[in-house]
Amino acid sequence: MKLELTMTEALHDYVTAISPPEPEPLRAVREEAGYLGAGMMQVPAQEARFLATLVKAVGARRTLEVGVFTGYSLLATVLALPPDGQVVALDLSEEWTSLAMAHCRRAGVAHQVDLRIGDARETLAALVAEQGAAGSFDFAFIDANKEGYADYFDGALALLRPGGVIVVDNVLWHGAVADPDATDSETAAVRAFNERVRNDKRIDYAVLPLADGMTVAVKR
Ligand SMILES: C[S@@+](CC[C@H](N)C(=O)[O-])C[C@H]1O[C@@H](n2cnc3c(N)ncnc32)[C@H](O)[C@@H]1O
């Protein structure tokens, strides 16, 4: 028996068929990104469901997102929060995140999103310095530029409470991490991040070969 399933199109369709339907507000975000020719940027529906399930599993009230784009993962997590829950959402782009906020307004959850525009390294440093922010988050999702992953992980970990969960996206980077001929800076950054996590005594973690690969870490 094989250790891992190969995800065929038929099996993917089966997983979709036995999963809960994609909520309408998320379908709208996915379709819009498709029209814009940027669908590859957002997390797949199955990954978003996994994030939402984790948010509920840890009973999250306050979450962090690094890399919002047009809001697919943002909306998936904010819809999984209780009505008084909050997402602090970090991104460089006013343009993409204005679309994300429009979707959040339509879904009636914009008041639960604290969007902070800027380089996430600086925004995270400001959050860590902010009184009361450190240790006050239950969940974090990192999905921005790969060269920043180590800094985003350190910032998110400082903001998380013990027992809080961080999910890091794209840790298998289209399979390039295992291709010795792939020497571009993004692949190198993802490999370096993965090696660093291996030696990180602050967390317990697993690497999931779901979607583009996810590292799921729990703060000790
Ligand atoms: C892959 S997209 C995020 C996709 C999103 N999670 C979703 O499901 O739709 C990456 C995002 O990271 C943002 N980004 C890139 N570099 C950044 C940086 N230095 N600081 C903050 N955000 C950054 C980009 O503007 C982009 O919106």
From TrEMBL:
PROSITE patterns attached to this UniProt entry: SAM_OMT_I
Gene3D superfamilies: Vaccinia Virus protein VP39 (3.40.50.150)
InterPro entries listed in its UniProt record: Cation-dep_OMT, SAM-dependent_MTases_sf, SAM_O-MeTrfase
GO-annotated biological processes: methylation
Any Pfam family: Methyltransf_3
EC class of the enzyme, as a word: transferase
S-adenosyl-L-methionine recorded as keyword: yes
Gene Ontology MF term list: O-methyltransferase activity; S-adenosylmethionine-dependent methyltransferase activity
Keywords assigned by UniProt, alphabetized: Methyltransferase, S-adenosyl-L-methionine, Transferase
Listed EC numbers: 2.1.1.-
Protein name as catalogued: O-methyltransferase family protein
